[in-house]
Amino acid sequence: MMQGKKSLSSSDDVSDINISPLIDMVFILLIFFIVTTVFVKEPGVDIARPFAYNAADLEKNCVLVAVTQNNEVFYGGENVGLHGIRTIIRRAMQENDRMPVIIQADVQAHAGTVARLVDECKLGNAPAGNIHLSMEKSN
């Protein structure tokens, strides 16, 4: 009656499932996602940006530079000054010559400081069309 079917009894050994290939695959996926993740360096200071009525979202992979109300230039949480930003921009442009530079200027920052910062970015080989000012979106 039950010729083709085999039943398991308590004396039969159940073979273990080998999960080591599964663990290897999970580690490979983890490494893949870590390598392909885009890391954005924040300027490291809080600034009050002016409002804009027509704002556009830009790429995540960019160089973020901040100008505080005391006209200090920050990149990556460090005060690099106007003269230190040129080498940072030049290094970023060697990696990707189309990488946008986003300047976050405080409302109280002097326009002359922001203009000099734009000039330093241009001297660091950033294309003029890839230098943007970041403003707060208004509703």
Give a verbal description of the structure.
By secondary structure, the chain is α/β, with parallel strands linked by helices. The protein has a domain at 51-137: 2-Layer Sandwich (Nucleotidyltransferase, domain 5), CATH 3.30.420.270. It has helices at 20-36, 81-95, 111-123; strands at 51-52, 63-67, 73-75, 78-79, 101-105, 131-134, 136-137. Strands 4-3-2-5-6 form a 5-stranded mixed β-sheet, with helices on one face. Strand 5 (101-105), helix 3 and strand 6 form a beta-alpha-beta unit. The protein starts with 19 loop residues before the first helix and ends with a strand.
Features:
139 residues; alpha/beta; Nucleotidyltransferase, domain 5; 5-stranded mixed β-sheet; two-stranded parallel ribbon; elongated
Give the overall average pLDDT: 79
What about the largest sheet?
5 strands, mixed
- Looking across the biggest beta sheet, what order are the strands in? 4-3-2-5-6
As for the CATH topology of one domain, it is: Nucleotidyltransferase, domain 5
SS content category = alpha/beta
The percent range for strand residues is 15-25%
Determine the number of helices (DSSP H or I, runs of at least 4 residues): 3
Under CATH at level 1, the class of one domain stands as: Alpha Beta
* Fraction of residues in helix: 25-40%
- Number-wise, the strands total 7
Report, as a whole number of angstroms, the end-to-end distance.
Answer: 77 Å
